[in-house]
Amino acid sequence: MSDSPNNEEPKKDRRKFIVTSTIAASTACALFPLASGIPSVLDPATKDSDNAEVPWTKVTNLATLPEDGTPTKFEVILERVKDAWTTYTNIPAGAVYLARNGDKVTAYNLKCPHLGCAIDYRKNSNDYFCPCHNSTFGLDGSVTTDNSPSPRGMDTMDTKVEDGVVWIRFQQFVPNIAEKVPV
Ligand code: FES
Predict the structure, then answer these.
(1) Which domain holds residue 152?
(2) DSSP state of 65
(3) Could you tell me if 56 and 144 lie in one domain?
(4) Integer Cα distance of 25 and 34 in angstroms
(5) CB-ligand 1 contact for 129 (6 Å cutoff)
(6) Vertex 125, ends 123 and 130: CA angle to 5°?
(7) Å from CA of 144 to ligand 1 middle
(8) Does one domain contain both 127 and 146?
(9) Buried b (16+ CB within 10 A) or exposed e, 161-180
(10) What is the pTM of this model?
(11) In terms of domains, do 159 and 80 share one?
């Protein structure tokens, strides 16, 4: 028995639906591995950044620092910064106070560990002060007020002196937590 014209139309629609669905599913399967790889193709910088070593940066000559330990402010310029695509040169990264003790130098980040304002060195009281929320720090960078909003002392970083030149490993740290955690 043959189908009437009225019964033929729904059958055609069903066949068309099955063919279309199969093509769509096959295409999705073929593309899925490619799609899952897109983030690493577009953003290869995310792959190794955790292991990148902080480079040494030249700041000044030791002879420019007062021998009595008075802090001196310096801007930190990174000679080379490389991302996944480009190498940039002479990039301002931040600022530090350097304090000399003989042939050793301590570097304190100018950025307040509370919320990141710039810390001042106060010559009159010979200490550090953040004007944003009144945190005070001693010359060794420690918090000096009981109710200081800053949860930790000033952030220090690695330094070395080679052939009379002061080098630092400049880093920023997560603000407003008690631990010193590199960003
Ligand atoms: S940002 Fe320095 S005390 Fe708040």
Answers:
(1) 49-168
(2) S
(3) yes
(4) 15
(5) no
(6) 80
(7) 14
(8) yes
(9) beeeebbbebbebebeeeee
(10) 0.71
(11) yes
33 plus 122 within the same structural domain:
no
Count of domains for the chain:
2
Query: CA-CA distances (angstroms) from residue 157 to 16, 56, 85, 98, 168?
Result: 68, 11, 28, 10, 7
Same domain, 162 and 76: yes
Burial (CB count within 10 angstroms: exposed 0-12, middle 13-18, buried 19+), residue 148? middle
- The gap from C-alpha 3 to its chain's centroid, in whole angstroms, comes to 72
CA of 115 to the centre of ligand 1 (A): 5
The DSSP result for 121-149, as a single string, is EETTTTEEEETTTTEEE-TTS-B--TT-S
Hunting for tokens 């918090």 — which residue is that? 143
Say if residue 105 is in the same domain as residue 120. yes
Same domain, 84 and 161: yes
Per-residue pLDDT of 73-131, as tens digits, reads 999 999 888 888 888 888 899 999 999 999 999 999 999 999 999 999 999 999 999 99
Q: Does 151 sit in the ligand 1 pocket, CB within 6 Å?
A: no
